[in-house]
Amino acid sequence: MSSPRRADYFTMKLFGGPVLVVKAVDSLHSEFRAVDNLVVCNTNRVLKAFQNARVGSHHFGGCTGYGHDEAGGRGALDQAFAKIFGAESAIVRHRSYNILICQQFFSGTHAITCALFALLRTGDELLAVAGAPYDTLEEVLGKRESGGLGSLQDFGVKYREVPLAEDGGLDWNALMSAVKPKTKCALIQRSCGYSWRRSLSVNEIGRAIKIIKKQKPSCSVMVDNCYGEFVESIEPPMVGADLIAGSLIKNPGGTIAPCGGYIAGKKKCVEAAAARLSAPGLGVDCGSTPGDIMRAFFQGLFLSSQMVGEAIKAIQLGSHERLLAFCEAVQRSSPVGSYTKPVAGATPGYASEVIFADGTFIDGSTSELSCDGPLREPFTVFCQGGTHWTQWGLVL
């Protein structure tokens, strides 16, 4: 019987590529150790939230959502989310595949939109304090023409931005006097989006919130938390954010949730967002939940800390051809659809043509091995997800 060392030798001789992966791992020991420590911390936080919500197998069933006290696992899932993110309340909903089913989030953009419409009214101003928002929010805000389909601008909400500083971080000096009498809500995008900058830390977000609240205590702070969940050991509500929102096919879905989004934060703000999603008076109490989805939500959330510990990277390629070539390499290395070739094209919500490489088990899931990027200067590709870091090792 071969020894493990002997077996590893023959494996590396047979597959030349993995030899480079093994060498790279040896050089990254301290970085991997730091990630492992973060995963332990966040997994413990998730585990305690599950235990606090008394999650049981009976919570994995569905419900019609139109009777009293029959929410099944939905209430326990909301409770677990709130606890994990340090929020007073949360609402977690899946995408509806039946047009007659109400009260569902079908993407992170949808959840963020519900949150913004819940906080803002005609005559108010929305202030984006981290520069331009992600592409899919431009039509929501009215920054890009929506054709009169109901953007915030269509409803009389003004919009203003505080540009980022030269180093790509928040412009602290400009932020000191940015809040005006009409500013009702400040929007902070935690991730870099499609910008070539570092993402914001939770401590930076907390500092920004203090500056905003000092100028106007009644100004709500909404954080676009997409791609930020479990990247650190704390979350924005723990440093004063009134609301956060994100997608379940990104970090908190753990590569298992097939769809959906969430909102968490102050109880009153979450209730307002829930009323926007359903109707005033109904809030979180109505809306059906299919029985085949709750287990995926709970299990995905439990695994999410580990999944987030695997990969989030951005690479600036400099040319149209290199961007396409990189995405083709990712697609070739995917477990699903490896034989297909990704093609750039127009995508709803995006201003530029975008290319996506995502041979994923959940269609569009960026928590699995995937990458995407807009076809515009400086031709940056954003790599995220993966069930294990070795997937990216094999891609490279």
UniProtKB/TrEMBL annotation:
SUPFAM superfamilies per the UniProt record, alphabetical: PLP-dependent transferases (SSF53383)
InterPro entries: Met_g_lyase_put (IPR009651), PyrdxlP-dep_Trfase (IPR015424), PyrdxlP-dep_Trfase_major (IPR015421)
Domain of life of the native organism: Eukaryota
Record's protein name: Aluminum resistance protein
